[in-house]
Amino acid sequence: MEAGWVPQRRDRDAEREVDEHEVKLWSDSLDLDREHDELHKVSESDDEVGRGPAGGSVKSTLWVILMTLSTLNGRRLLRGAFAFYFTLLIQLGAYSTVAVTLLLAQLRKLWTKPPKIKEGNSRFETLLIGFRILLSSSIASLGMLCGAQALLRCPNLPVLAMLPIVTYVFDSFLMRLAYVLRIVPRDQSISARKTYKIITVLLCAFPPVLFDYRLNIRGLLFALAGFALCSISRVAANFGPRIESKGSKTWESPLRVYLLAGMPPMIFAGIATSNFENVTAATHISGAWSLAHSLQNLGPGVLLHIFFSSAMNSAYPFTSQVHVGGALEEPTESATDAVASTMQAGFWTVVFGVLGQEMVFIDWIQVISFTLVYVVCVGPTQIGYYPPRLLNLITWLFRRRQLALHAEPWQFSFFLATTTTTFAILISCNAMFWVDTVAYDRNLRTWLEPSNPLLDTLYRAPNLRSFDVIIAHSEGDSIETIAHLVETFTSHPFIIGLNTRVIVYSKDPTFNMTESTAQSIKGLFGGDFSVQTLRNTGGVTATFLHHILYSWAFMPVQTLFLSTNTTDALTLPLHAQRLTDYFLPMEFPLPDALPKTGFLNLGGQESCWCGACFDSFGWEDSFHLIPSMWSAARPGSPTCESVLLTYGNHFIASAARIRGVKKDVWEMLYDGLVNEDMGNAWAHKKEKMPLRLAGEEGQGRYAEGEVYGRPDSLVRPYLGLTVERLWGVLLQCSRPEIAWGCPSLEVGWRSGGRREDCGCVE
How far is the C-alpha of 503 from the C-alpha of 486, rounded, in Å? Predict the structure, then answer.
């Protein structure tokens, strides 16, 4: 089939029976066909002639602004413990606004003369249009929820902001598939001349993901699912025969269409809210917002839904009218404008996002891939007009007369090459400089960790190259978990050559230690091995504190602390790999004179503000221990701002760091955890517990399996959750280099990484 729009032909009988009005419509259709053909011919030679001086529309500029603001607001609120409720708030706001507008419009009609009603669509056509709207909106609402989950789960916002352009790749594949299957009308071009853009986007989408050292697989899958569902919704909106508008154009009213299309997102978001959200807490939080705060949080998202029916972190909503496919293949100015708007929204999201709580580096390969997609898909022709548009913007700011845009000289080959190259260099260098230098240096000022930690340099371990492996066995955990921990870490190449001792502390009352059990746990390990039982109080952290206090006088050079409570078959290899990548064992014969690991957390980490610390799991520092423990571990630095939280109770610590903190501090924490007088113990006082709202039981962070899913008790005190997150603070390893540079457990190592990225070396 030739490129261009090909209208459907009528038979001769129909042509004889058409009236004068229908002949005029047919003539207009042929004129439109010629215009499309001419436009396509121009697009084929756009490198030499160009599309003209027309710039991005006001509509696309508004979309870029609203998309950037709504994505950043959504990121901030979703990462602040809103799971689905924020998306429902946006739907409620947008739906209510349009409903009120429609009501006012209907009231206005009471004072106006009703128009003459013309013949409208048939009942079948009306039902088909309504079904299309409902089906498309239902699919898009699922994509919206997937997008919200991606914003919630993806640690690396810059990489996530680079990916919405992939939506147009899904558009191309799915629309072509629908065309082949005759699901959509076959009156458009199927030329493959712009396929190179699809290939470019596909190839350039891999480097940002592959070099994402904070990659979260589930977050990535949610993002891709959201993009794919958005494309499927467009296919659903176009399936079946093409229906021409007639009569009163009831279905063409944007207000009525939005009210119909707004029902599925409301229903889906409502179901998700009731099933997954802490509605009580979310209502309490949103109810405390002032009007200005509500407008700031919800305004951009509501306007984005009303004007564009777009969700957060998505591509510009574009439906092809000339070509079967997406905006990447459409040979029109509006398609290029859609691609440019999508890329620009991603760029501004990266620029402003890193000024918040985003602490990630980006790689040159990621930035170059993003820039290459922009240059190839937007094209040198459009980029060539950027200098005169910039000059016009400057003259407009100074209230001077703007210059008319002409093709000459901006579309000459020399200017096109120069402008495109300069644009690519400026975008790439500025993005790298802004994220990796400006944002990093700005955040660096909030980390007040002293450069020289307070270490016990006078202590000498009784045995050279001594190394302890401490395993805390909790009630209900299997014996096989202990055996897997012993086998995995005692056979590790970095540990197997050390003078290793394994100590298992069990708090399981049903644990029966026999010779066969001991042998099954010990396995092939030939070193010193012992098992001790403790009272089931205080949890895992109390076990570690017990060992620290017990071995204070004969502590080895380095100690590995492990817990069976947070170990499974999936995470155990990740913990072992983290040790392989970042552990520096002591050297012989002078372990204290050569670099070695002082602290290394084998689990995940997260940063927070010292004064009011909370994390993405719903935990909060209700005991207000972080400021006091910070100053207790660093007497010379009593104040703190940004701190690093640790997860999992898997870490390595040196004796110099453990003993660098006063023994009284460890004793105070241990006594608070194991004190059985819950009525008088400070660790169980009601005012120290996290605030639970009326009706919040079983919701959100208090649901079964969540951070506060079980009540505070001697077996599992809430204080233990706080101490678990305090190991880095207590052991003076709360550094910005770790917050910014440490990869996720799934990735393990980042390009250009160092062993100091995830731990502290002394």
Answer: 10
